Amino acid sequence: MSSAGERWTAVNSAGYPAPVALAVDVVVLSVRRSELQVLLVDRPDATKALPGGLVGSEESPGGTAARKLAEKTGLDDLYLEQLATFAEPDRDPRGWIPSIAHLALVPAGTEPRDPAATWAPLSGLPPLGFDHATIVRTALERVRGKLWWSNIAVGILPGGFTMSEARVVYEAIAGTAYDPSTFARDLRATGLIEPEPAEPRLTRGRPARLYRFAEREPAWGHGRRKRLHG
Amino acid sequence: MSSAGERWTAVNSAGYPAPVALAVDVVVLSVRRSELQVLLVDRPDATKALPGGLVGSEESPGGTAARKLAEKTGLDDLYLEQLATFAEPDRDPRGWIPSIAHLALVPAGTEPRDPAATWAPLSGLPPLGFDHATIVRTALERVRGKLWWSNIAVGILPGGFTMSEARVVYEAIAGTAYDPSTFARDLRATGLIEPEPAEPRLTRGRPARLYRFAEREPAWGHGRRKRLHG
DNA sequence: AGAATAGTGTCTGTAAGACAATATGAA
DNA sequence: TTCATATTGTCTTACAGACACTATTCT
Questions:
Q1: For B190-203, what is each residue's pLDDT tens digit?
Q2: Which of B10, B14, B85 is nearest residue A18 as measured by Cβ atoms?
C-alpha cells in the first residue's frame, strides 16, 4: 500500500487513464437483540467503514465479496446480492476506484472472526468513511423493499425457526410490529416456507412448530403487501 | 482504438493490474406501436449491441450514460437509473472492462439521431454481443417490478397523456391487458398523477381528460398490486 | 341516428389489520 | 393451577378484477 495522501493513478495500453482498481463493499446485516445491525470494521484513522476489498483481475466481484465475508465472519454460505455501484470519480481519496456495493444477510448468532470487525445497530450508526453512509441507506431500502416479496430473510433465518423468531426478524427489518397470528398467516401465504420435521424447542410456554425457507437461493414469493415502518 | 483481437491491459502506480476502462451500457426502452422496444446500435461485426461508452476519468457514470443518450437520441431530459454492474473478468474480449448498466425510458415518439441506432421489439430480439441479452432481461424485470409502485413510466409519458395512452404503455410494459375503467381507477389511486388543465385532444369519440405525473424525478407511489404478464 | 371512444357505478372474491378465544406445555 | 407462549378463528376494511351502464363527440 502507498502512504496516505498519495493518489494512485493508472493508464491502459492505449495510453488513456484507467480506473486504479475495482472495489467491493459489503453491507452485512443481521438481527441481534431484536435490532437490525450492520458489520463495521475499524479503519487506520479510527473511523469506521464497511468491510470490503479490491477485486482481483481474474475474479468476479461477487466472488470477492464472498471471500472478504469469509475472512471477517467465517461464513461461506450466506445470502449475497449485488446492491449498486458507486463510482463518482472523487469518492475515494486514493484515486479512481469504483465500488460495487453488495448486500449480505447472515444468521442471527454470527460473531466476527476479525477482531477489527464489530456489530453496530442501524439506528445510531457512527460516522462512516467514504460514501458508506449512503451505501447503508441504499441497503436498508433494498432489504425492506424485498422483505415480503422474496426469501431474502433466509440469510438471517437459515432453517428451523419458529414463527416468533421469524417475526422478530421481520419486525426488525421492517421497523414495525406485526400481530403474531396475522404474521404467521401471511408469511405462510408467501409460499416461501415449509414446516420442518424437527422436534420443537425447549421453551417456556407451548412449544412452537418449526419452519424453514424452501429455497436457500434468492427467490420470489407470492408477495404480501405488509406494513413497513411504524 | 486498437485493432481487433488485441487485449488491452492496464497497471496502476502500485504495480498491480487495473481495470482497462470503466464502461456504461444503456437499455433504452420505449413503447412504439403498442409494443415495448429497445434501442440497439450496429457493431462493426454486423451484430447488434446496447448503446454505451467509456466513462471518463473525471466523469460520473450517470453523466456518461446521459451524454451517450443525448448523442443517440437528442434527448437530455429523460428517466435514467442505474440497473446493475456486470464485471465478470471475461465479459469483454478487449480486456477487463466492468460495465455499469443503466435503464432509460424515453417518450413514445423518440427517433434515433444516430443512423446506426434502431428500435427493436423486445419480443424477438436479434442476437446481442457481450452479455447484453442478460442486461436486457434484467432491465425488463426492473421496469416491470417498479411499474405500479413508482412513476417510472414518466419517461415514456412525459405529460398531457390520456388514460388510454397510459394504458397502452402500461399494458406493453406489463405484457398484459387491463380493463380500461379499472386501470384508470387504479392509476389515479397511486397518487402519482394529476389532471392537466390543457385542452382535450381532437379525436373520434368523446374527448379524454389529460393527465401528467406530478413528479418527473424518480418517485414512489402508494403501490398497486396489479397483474403482470398474460 | 349510429358509431366510437371516454368515464361512472356496482358487484364480488381476496388480502390484510385487529383482536378474541382456545391449545399446549412448564413452573 | 397458573403462567407464558403458540395457534385458530372471526370480524372488518380495503384492494382489484369484471362488467354493465352512461356520457360526449364525430360522421
A1: 999 999 987 767 77
A2: B10
